[in-house]
């Protein structure tokens, strides 16, 4: 990534995440509202230092189609809230059983398993309230909000994100998979992370009335950056683990399907680079308006976590 | 309840629940679709012999406002799917820790805690997909579907059903509550069960374009039958437990806030009857169209479970 491209991107991400944080502050029920402990748990994970990538993609999707970030702000927040719920539930002992996320104790470690489940349920439900409320923004037609809600529900549900997590859960440590590890890995990542990243862009486009061709191009872009994002994550896990965690990291690699485990480190990196260039090719029709999303594609494999 | 009134109601409930079952069969992803085990878990709890009360209320709400049951069928199914998700999550060991529901092992007993959490998440998400798809039914305006989605999200979220469950969870066995048991009991039931019952009627009205006054009357009706329903449930628990469960039942009574525990059996029954007559009074403006909902109000305290 060139210096100027990078600085355009960083200032985009910074200004958008500031807007999103301010809006999330308004959209989430205050801690003082009953049930206080539930709202505290919901806020604990929403304000835990996330980079607001999905809202940024949603707003960039709106802008590249000729709309404004303001027009999709509630839905952009909905995507972050949805992403947060998925992390809270994934961290539970019955799932990935993680004690720490972003350097802080996970939700259930602080509030207990029952409240963490309910905080996740509350966030998931709030996401759909926010999408419905996006219809109140001037210039947004009600049928666009309905379509946005449908797109998000399909991407987040049992044929999307929840489905990816389910396959991840049942395939962990399952020796019977050995014959088709590559297919299972592909399924997990397309669904567990890919579907919501793709939907983030699509929702931004839908809510500004984008046409079918624009939506299709953004979907292709979204699929490819989702793939690049996930491969980079897996690669960083291996490289980072070797540096930081020693043996514990490599045990996890063996238990979980990852790109480096299936394809090796070099082939994984090659696939990530190919996905980035496929993503950028999908943006061609947008001409000079594609600057930010093009830089974001590069950023997927260059970011630190 | 008179004989003719009762037979009108029973034939209404039967015909509506048949429609709903057939529609749910179409709306839920087939077990053969990947991830098979997740879809199996979702279907296991949706097709577990529920009476489809919330869909019936939604369809009756549409009909009393001059619309048809057909017009609100996807949303009616969404309400049942939402109710099912709440049961699956409530039964988890981290919550009420129940092994049996409607005579069958609970979801997590069959599929494990992780898949039960994901099945609940998948159902909750599917509910909002179905509401969005209700906009495709001819005669339904997109802004009505948006409003239906908003109403359900508020009723099911942290200020509604999930909030009620959270207070139920943190108040169980909490001695510090002794000073205000009545208020806590009231909060739990208005939110945990009441909010979704009220929303079921409102969604039916919204999706056929009902006006503010009709919606308000149905909301008052819904609040009151929700209350009657819950008191009757608590009373049946006491009466039923004494017959069937012996000591185990009474232990549970002591741990959990219930109407008989707070008000005694007779006062609980009096309150249930008052709620039923308040509910029926709210229906006056609908004249003869109120027959089914009026009979349903009586049914709330006469039903067996």
Low-confidence stretches of chain A: 245-253
Largest sheet composition of chain A? 2 strands, antiparallel
Task: Compute the separation of the termini of chain A in Å.
Answer: 17 Å
Estimated radius of gyration of chain A: 19 Å
| Strand order in the sheet with the most strands of chain A | 1-2
Give the helix proportion of chain A (percent range): over 70%
Number of domains in the coordinates of chain A? 1
Largest protein-protein interface: A-B, 53 and 53 residues
Separate helix tally of chain A:
14
Mean pLDDT of chain A: 92
Shape of chain A: globular
For this structure, what is the CATH class of chain A? Mainly Alpha
What fraction of residues of chain A sit in β-strands? under 5%
Which fold name is given in CATH as the topology of chain A?
Farnesyl Diphosphate Synthase
Oligomer: homodimer
CATH homology group of chain A: Farnesyl Diphosphate Synthase
| Class of secondary structure makeup of chain A | mainly alpha
Question: Could you characterize the architecture of this molecule?
Answer:
The structure is a homodimer of 305-residue chains. With 305 residues, the first copy, chain A, is an all-alpha fold. Chain A has a single domain, classed as Farnesyl Diphosphate Synthase (Orthogonal Bundle). Chain A has 14 helices and 2 strands. In chain A, strands 1-2 form a two-stranded antiparallel ribbon. The radius of gyration of chain A is 19 Å and the shape is globular. The model of chain A is unreliable at 245-253 (pLDDT under 50). At the A-B interface, helix 2, helix 6, helix 7 and helix 8 of A face helix 2, helix 6, helix 7 and helix 8 of B.
């Amino acid at each position: 990534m060139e210096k100027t491209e990078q600085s355009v991107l960083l200032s985009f991400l910074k200004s958008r995440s500031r807007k999103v944080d301010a809006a999330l502050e308004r959209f989430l029920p205050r801690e003082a509202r009953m049930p206080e402990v539930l709202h505290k748990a919901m806020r604990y994970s929403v304000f835990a230092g996330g980079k607001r990538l999905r809202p940024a993609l949603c707003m960039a999707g709106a802008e590249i189609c000729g709309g404004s970030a303001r027009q999709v702000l509630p839905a952009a927040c909905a995507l972050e809230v949805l992403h947060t719920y998925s992390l809270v539930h994934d961290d539970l002992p019955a799932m990935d059983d993680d004690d720490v996320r972003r350097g802080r104790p996970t939700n259930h470690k602080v509030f207990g398993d029952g409240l963490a489940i309910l905080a996740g349920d509350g966030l998931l439900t709030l996401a759909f309230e926010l999408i419905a409320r996006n219809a109140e923004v001037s210039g947004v037609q009600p049928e666009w909000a309905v379509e946005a809600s449908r797109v998000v529900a399909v991407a987040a549900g049992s044929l999307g994100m929840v489905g990816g997590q389910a396959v991840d859960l049942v395939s962990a440590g399952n020796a019977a998979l050995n014959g088709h590890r590559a297919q299972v890995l592909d399924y997990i990542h397309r669904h567990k992370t890919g579907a919501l990243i793709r939907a983030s862009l699509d929702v931004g486009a839908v809510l500004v009335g984008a046409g079918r061709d624009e939506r299709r191009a953004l979907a292709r872009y979204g699929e490819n950056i989702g793939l690049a994002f996930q491969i980079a994550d897996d690669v960083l896990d291996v490289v980072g683990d070797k540096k930081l965690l020693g043996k514990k990291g490599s045990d996890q690699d063996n238990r979980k399907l990852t790109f480096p485990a299936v394809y090796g480190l070099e082939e994984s990196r090659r696939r990530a680079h190919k996905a980035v260039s496929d993503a950028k090719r999908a943006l061609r029709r947008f001409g000079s308006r594609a600057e930010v999303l093009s830089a974001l594609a590069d950023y997927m494999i260059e970011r630190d976590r």
